[in-house]
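#onboarding

Welcome to the new folks! Below is a worked example of what a typical request in this channel looks like: someone posts a single protein sequence, and someone else replies with the predicted structure as tokens. Don't worry about understanding the tokens yet, we'll cover that in week two.

Example request:
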Amino acid sequence: MLAKGNFMNLATSLGIYAAISKELDGHLLFTGSETFYICFDCFTYSRLHAQFHLWAAMEPECSNHAFNVVSGDTESWQTMGPKLAKRVGFKVPANQFDIPLDKDAGSMIDVALNPPIVEAAAERRLEGRIRPGKDNKEST
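Example response:
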């Protein structure tokens, strides 16, 4: 099942990424870290997910509760990635994590050392309440 017009849907996102990759350089590289590529992730069958949403919407006892539903299927991108690539006519380069990224790529940006809220902390009376990220020594 594919949720048409839902670009948060993983299948839609992968399809768009594959189409763009084919036009740019023909490589279908994994966009995450090597660690995430080899570890296992959980996926949910779309019909189970839909049934769960119907149940949660119709069941009065579900009101004001948070839920997470998975069907228990686990897969690694290391196994699934090459299968997907083959299905759409790509090959996954064995050295994909060693290929240098294009420095001019539109998705490459320098990330601010402090979260944006730190810049506005004084206006919102939040000084000293915003903690720096794990790579930052101190908020300013």
